[in-house]
Design goal:
- It is a single chain.
- With 286 residues, the chain is α/β, with parallel strands linked by helices.
- The chain has a single domain, classed as Uracil-DNA glycosylase-like domain (Uracil-DNA Glycosylase, subunit E, 3-Layer(aba) Sandwich), CATH 3.40.470.10.
- Helix content is 48%, strand content 10%.
- It is globular and about 65 Å long.
- About 7% of the residues have low confidence.
């Protein structure tokens, strides 16, 4: 298939949105096969081989050059992303219940993550929860089951919440994005922005007393915080709502360490425990 330059750039931009980050050859290569031994170098041909190799590299620039190239394709992608965000806002406003929101989100085609994920992964817990927990993105286990925080990190989170006497009737758990990014990569800003209207509508419909950000990503996106999670955790913030049952209300919010981080850094559990005690104290006082 012959493509003009603008079509090629658009195709590469689409690949990048789907998480493709390296070029693959047309033919499979067995990396485990023993490579044939190379013949001894011929000094007479060494200069010629070097010059040929340099010319070949000039003819074949790295894939990153194409993937990051500015031009009409990038501008078009940004315009399309803005349109998708506007469409998401319009769709999210229509939901009067969490069930309706799930149905509307399942039919929404504005987020590219939907094309590579197995299942929509929206939430778990009680729609009347006092505490709402927000992570970043579903992982492999969540993608398989269509439920957030069900893998190892989710199991640790359940134990953490049980330690302060919070059961499923007391919490509601969701993420910044609702489909698994390919390869568990970090969601792109465009992907987060297009999902944000549905997250904001969840907050309005649940109307929690406290919001807990699991990791810095959610805190930064919803409060404008700029600090890293170590400096940000344990500090009370506020999230201002703009519509729904809690219009104009500021909800108390706090960030803590993501359970996945605690699995990699068990020594940090003592910090998370302090945050949990602060959450329990705030709920008891309200």
């Amino acid at each position: 298939m012959d493509l003009d330059p603008s079509q090629a750039l658009a195709l590469l931009e689409w690949y990048r949105a789907l998480g493709v980050d390296e070029a693959i050859g047309d033919a499979a290569v067995d990396r485990f096969a023993r490579e044939p031994s190379e013949p001894a170098a011929d000094p007479a041909n060494e200069k010629t081989q070097l010059e040929n190799g340099q010319r070949e590299r000039l003819r074949q620039p790295p894939a990153a050059t194409f993937l990051n190239a500015p031009g009409p394709a990038s501008e078009t992608a940004l315009e399309a992303a803005a349109d998708d965000v506007m469409a998401a806002r319009e769709v999210a406003r229509k939901a009067s219940t969490l069930a309706e929101l799930r149905d509307l989100l399942a039919a929404f085609e504005g987020c590219g993550l939907k094309t590579t994920a197995k299942r929509l992964c929206l939430s778990r817990g009680s729609p009347k929860a006092r505490a709402m927990f927000i992570g970043e993105a579903p992982g492999k286990d969540e993608d398989s089951q269509g439920v957030p925080f069900v893998g190892r990190a989710g199991q640790l989170l359940d134990r953490m919440l049980a330690s302060i006497n919070l059961g499923e009737e007391d919490y509601y758990i969701t993420n910044l994005v609702f489909w698994r990014p390919p390869g568990n990569r970090t969601p792109s800003p465009q992907e987060v922005q297009v999902c944000q209207p549905f997250l904001e509508r969840q907050i309005e419909l649940v109307s929690p007393e406290i919001i807990v950000f699991l990791g810095a990503a959610a805190a930064k996106q919803l409060t404008g915080a700029t600090e890293g999670i170590i400096k940000l955790r344990g500090k009370w913030m506020s999230y201002a709502t703009s519509s729904g049952a809690v219009e104009g209300r500021s909800i108390r919010a706090i960030a803590t360490l993501h359970p996945a981080y605690l699995l990699r850094n068990p020594i940090a559990k003592r910090l998370a425990w302090r945050d949990l005690l602060a959450i329990r104290e705030a709920l008891d006082a309200s």
